Amino acid sequence: MNLQSAFAHFVELTPTCATGAIGAQHISNYAASLGAHEIGRLGTLNGLLQKWVELGLPGVEPECATYLLERKKPGNKKGEPVRTRNPVVGPLSEEEYTALYSAVNTAYGRGKLPLWALLLTRLLLACGGRISQFASLKLCDFDSATFVLSLPQVKTGLEHARSSFLSFDISRQTGLLIADYINGLRAEGYNDNSAFFPQALVMPRGSRKKLRASDDMFYGHCTPNTLSKWFKARTEEFAPPTSRLDFAPMPLTPKRFRYTFGLRLAEEGASKVVIANRMGHADLQQVEVYVAASPKIVENIDKTMGALLVPLAQAFKGQLVQDEEHSTHKGAAGSRIIDFRVSKDPVGSCAGKGKSCGFNKPVACYGCFRFEPWLDAPHGKVLERLESEREAWSDDERMAAVNDEPIRAVKEVIALCAQVWQQRAQQESGAAS
């Protein structure tokens, strides 16, 4: 909650002051009018009014500062979404994390999700920053040579949101996408000082009002609320179903990504100091909840139960083809996909000819919409290898779960192949009789 919205809420619920100044009684009446879920607003208002009195500005009686300091100000129940693993507002589960990553990649690949929304999704997962940090981000904050992102710190108490930065190493695959994205913006006239997520790009229809003056440091930037709103609007259409909500689409908000980032750090064994540093906290108080919520509850899904627990969303998103002759590119360079660890025979073709693809082949291929598996190919051997790797990591659920989505996709391909062979056998049997 920001100071402006906190004060606006106070003014809305407070009668006009007869003396023209806010007094302790107004604060008391306001506090009494708040519901249990709103009481945290008083803590935010406290910071504003304390500063107001300190500056000696008219409009707030000095008694307000004393009253607020002496009054116990209960805050929001910090950490409850993480502590309870809330499926609506808390951190994503491992299954949800993987499914979401795959879903937004597919949506972008099919031209249904803009690149800025894909990149914001990946950066939220990779950096765990607040949406206000990404709203303050500029093109110059990414180094295309080293793939390092300098994320502005917004709660350091310094003069403005670009006085302090925290560096994050971005994966090569995402880094190349960011480099292409920045080059595209530069071609449209943007420069180093331009917003990383420009208002004109995020809001294609434009804002109904001018958000910032042309001499403002953040001219052309979205406000945090605007960026959050449009991000949610762009991604919720592709939110995959989650078993934690009876297979309803998972709710997506930037704060859930931050919770997920912190919890994953704790589950990987990071110390409180490291977690606090990576999340931009000045002390360790806020990170206790992540450490307390770890270690992760391991869900050991038995192989024989797998079919009963498969999520409604299909893991395999490609198109089964008879052979290479029936594929999109019919054997063109870069289109053939082979896993030499199991066989010299190809498992399928890539409709995109592997262009600009940095994913792990063929593991990632089975979950890609461009994948064209062949009917008569060693899919069973690929499955055996993936399941063997999963078994080898059985002591580390995070590592073991990496292949869960590909395993499901390979099983679906094998099932489709079996279905085709069965149909052909029935047709041949019928023709013979």
TrEMBL record:
Residues 87-303 form the Tyr recombinase domain. SUPFAM superfamilies: DNA breaking-rejoining enzymes. It comes from the Bacteria. The keyword Ribosomal protein does not apply. One of its GO terms (biological process) is DNA recombination. Keywords: DNA recombination. The keyword DNA repair does not apply. InterPro entries: DNA_brk_join_enz (IPR011010), Integrase-like_cat_sf (IPR013762), Integrase_catalytic (IPR002104). This is Tyr recombinase domain-containing protein. It comes from Ralstonia holmesii. The lineage of its organism: Bacteria, Pseudomonadati, Pseudomonadota, Betaproteobacteria, Burkholderiales.
